[in-house]
Structure formats: structure tokens, C-alpha cells
Amino acid sequence: MDTQHRLQQLRLGSGLVLFGFLVTHFLNHALGLAGLEAMEWGRTLFVRVWRHPLGTLVLYAAFALHATLVLHALYRRRALRMPGIEALQVALGFLVPMAIATHVIGTRGAHEMHGVADRYAYVVLSTFVFDWREGLVQAAAVLIAWTHAVLGLYFWLRLKPWFPRFERYLFAVALLLPAAALAGYAGAGREAALLAQDPRWLAQQTALMRVTPEAIEWVYAMANRMRALTFVAVAVVLLARLVRLSWQRRHGIVRIRYPNGREVRVARGSTVLAASRLHGIPHASVCGGRGRCSTCRIRIAGAAAELPPPSTSEQHVLNRLRAPAGVRLACQLRPTGDLAVVPMLPAAAQAREAYRSAAHLAGTERNIAILFADLRAFTRFSEGRLPYDVVFVINQYFRAMGQAIEGAGGRLDKFIGDGVMALFAVEAPIEQGCRSALEAARGMSLALDDLNRLLSPDLREPLRMGIGIHAGPAIVGEMGYRSAISVTAMGDAVNAASRLEGVSKELGCQLVLSARVAELAGVDLAAFPRHMVQVRGRAGELAVFAIADARDLPALPPAPVRRRGIRVSAPPA
Q: Rounded to an integer, what distance in angstroms lies between the CA atom of residue 223 and that of residue 262?
């Protein structure tokens, strides 16, 4: 594990400790909905944890470590340009110590240094009854600290594959907890205001607080120092960052070229992502440049051997992606010389792009099986029908075909008009893919029969279709633009499969498959007519089998299994 990854883990861990403190503190506030007495009972448990010597050590160490690492991250930044939501989280993080200064010094600090009894009656009387403006500041502090923490948690969790399923519930909790805390604080404040009208109760509470003018003066003086220290620390880091960047610019410039022909100049040591942001070039980075999501990945155009090798954390992500040579993470790559890069994902890429780890998504050549299917005479079927009826029938057909394809282990590529394209063996051996394609064809034929029976009252004649299947090398990868991006394939084998679907119409049969598919699937089709056909756009003839009804396909042989590295056939049932 490299140093930068360790620092990120420490920053995350310290942030989680502070988040745990916030959650328990807000739950304690929420007890104010049941009254001051309930809040004080909850405070007893809260103090038992966080004012225990071990709890205090963990909390203070987490705060100091988190603040230091945040300043270190700010210093390391080559560019301050970032997405708005990230800028909001950073800005709120620097506002937190300024917003909570009076509250922290006035409670724990005053208790330790001046013996003030910082019970909840003291807090609500001080900030809700005696000085309502300070109460508004504390309410703002709740929102500032919580928003900063929740955004940090969101940036971390949104990269988890399970997050989209639970996002709405977590969002509800993120809204309800601070709302309950503020409502509890307001409820306790109203109760204290009513009780304070009794001079005896007020005198009793004042005596219990043990607040002196010296303590009050000390609280405000220390709070101001805490704010000033925060301001000075940020200013010093920003100044040091400017000095470092100036020095780097004088000692080396790197040129980075982008696909649109634009070339930028940055100081040596800057990451490619920082260069993009500095010059306003849109570049995906869901995790904010922390090397977690892989959405900033780029392909290097030219000699990648001259680049610095990936760090341990970057190599881990590249291994997870099974990325081919020449692919790097823009947020981690710090080029030492001129280079040309091609961002691999659109700038608007979402967190879901980070879940995809298959190598074929980046573009690779694979031996796959391709199936094309098309409804016969559907244009004639559509004539004279209401649009609603046409859409209803075609959607029923697409659903039935899609279920048959996916049930056989295929990948539904796309619907083209009233046609279907499916891929097999994208992530499996080609032999298994060919067997799956034939199973899909049989399932599609059976599904079409069921559909014809279901829709018989609405059909003048049964729906008919033609299917073409071929296997061979094809380029597989994510292709498209923006929301139209999908995993698809292109190449001679794809074109041939599409032509075979048309040949099925010429031969008057439901299925035409190449002899190559039958050979790879290990199925004997000698009982079916064999033809040599000329496929448009392809040199030479192609041997094919014509199957009048895909339901007549013979039983497929069992899939081969592997035992101790030796490939054998599974025994018969």
C-alpha cells in the first residue's frame, strides 16, 4: 500500500470517528423532544463514552488527524477547480471549526478549565434564552457540520455497488437526524424559557452552572483564537501551495494533448486530472480524484513505457478493471514528459461506471457468437392498427425474446426496429457461447408460439420470425454517446450474422446458422439441409444449416467441465 493510499485511509477513518461523534450528539439533542430531563439522561451516556480518557483520546486524535490531512490534501492540489458539490464540501469543512468554536470552548473547555457544569440546562439557557443570536449560530453549526460529514460519507459510499439500492433510505436518515436534533434543541429551549420565569428555578440552575465572568471572557477569547488559527492555517497552506507551484513551473513544464486537438501546459508533477481541471477541460471523476472510482481513466496515445509506473493503489484499481496496457488513472498519473491522452468515459459519467470491471468494456477482440432475429411482415401487420395496439404487441414480443435470450445466458445488445441483436460468449468460452445461442434460438421459437396463442384474438395471422447465428472474432466494448452508451460488438462476424438472418427469409426457414457455430457447439446437424451461401460484403461462400423450426434443434451436448486443469466432457445424466 503506497503512502497516498494510507493517508486516504487515515483521513476516512478519522472522519468516521468524527461522524460517530456527531450522530451520538445529535441523538442526544433529539431527546429534547421528550424534555430537558430526557436530554440530561442521554447526556450521561454520551459523556460516559466521549469523556472517558480513551474516548477523549480517540476523539481529539481523530480531529487533529483529520484537520491535518485535509490541509495536506489542500496543499497537494495542483488545481482548485473542482465540481460544485466537492467545492461545497471543502468550504463547509473549513467553516466547521469557526462555527463550533464557541460551543466547543463553552462546554468541554469551560468545564475542564473553569469547572463549569455544562449540563443541557446551561446550554439551552445560554444559547436559547439569554442570547438567541448565539442559538442561531449553533443551529447553523449543526447544519454545516452535518452537511460536510454527509457529503464526505456520500463520496465514499456512492462507489459501493449496493449503494443505489439503499440511497433513498440513507438520504431520509440524513434529513431526519439533524431535523430531530434541532427540533429537540428548540423543544428543550422553550421548556427552559418557561421554567426560567420562576426565579427560584433560575437561581438554582445558575448556582449549579458555576459560571463566572472570567469563564465567559475566557470562552469568547479562546473561541476567537480558534477561528483565527483556522484562518491562518488555511492561508499558510494556500501560500505554501502557490510557492510550490511557482517553483515547479520554473523547473519543468509538461505538455498534455487531448483528442479535440487541444494542448495544455502544466507543471511537472501535476496529475492529468489536475491539468484537465486547471484548463477547464471536462473530465469524469466521481470520487473527486482519490483513485477509487476509475471513472477518470485514460488511454495513453504513444509510448507508455516512458511514464512513471502505477502506484500500488492505482495498480489495484487497474487490476480490478483488468485494464489493457496503456490505460491509466488520470487522477494518479503524474507525467514526467509530454504525452497525449484520451479520456475513456464521458465527462458526465456516473458512479455506476465505477462498478463495471470487465475487461471487454474497454474494447477488446473476442471470439463471440452473435444472434440476429427479425419479425416477418411486421410492417403489413402494423397497417390499419392503432399505434397503441402496435406498441403493445411489439413490447410483448421484445419481452418474450429478451427473456429467452437472457435465460440462455446471452447479453441482449439492442432492439433495432422490430429486430433483436444478442451477444454470447462475451465473458465465457466461445463453445459455451454457441451452445447458449442455440438454446436461445430454441427458447425464442417456443416463446413466439406462446405469444401467438396469447395474442390470437388480435392477430390476423401468426407472428413469424427469422433468426441468424454466426460466430467469430469481433471487437467488443462500450460504444455510443452519453445516455446511448452500451456494450456492443462490431466486425465481420457481426455483419455475417445479420446477413444470415436475411438468408433465413430467402430459404424459407426460421433459423440459419453457420457451420462454424454447429462445430463449436458440438451439435450434429447432418439431418438438416446444408447450403453454401454468398454473404453480401464477405469474400467467399459460407457453409450454413437451414432449420425450418428452431424447436427442432437436437439436444445439445453437456457443457465441458474442468478437472485439475484438464478439460473433459461432463458425464451423461
A: 50
Q: Which of 260, 256, 329, 335 lies closest to 296, judged by CA?
A: 329
Instruction: Please say if the pLDDT value at position 529 is more than 80.
Output: yes
CATH number of the domain enclosing 422: 3.30.70.1230
Q: Are residues 165 and 266 in the same domain?
A: no
3-class secondary-structure state, position 197: coil
**Domain C-terminal end among 296, 323, 355:** 355
Q: Using alpha carbons only, what angle is made at residue 388 by residues 385 and 389, rounded to the nearest 5 degrees?
A: 50
Q: Please write the tens of the pLDDT for every residue from 273-308.
A: 888 888 888 888 887 777 777 888 888 876 554 688
The CATH number of residue 99's host domain is 1.20.1300
User: Does residue 386 register a pLDDT over 80?
Assistant: no
Give the chain's radius of gyration (CA, Å): 34
Coil vs helix vs strand at 340: strand
Considering the domain architecture, whether residues 273 and 316 belong to the same structural domain is answered as: yes
pTM score? 0.63
Bridge partners, residue 544, by sequence:
514, 531
pLDDT digits (tens, 9 = 90+) for 425-445: 888 899 999 999 999 999 999
**In Å, how far are 41, 86, 90, 200, 349 from 293, measured between CA atoms?**
43, 15, 19, 61, 11
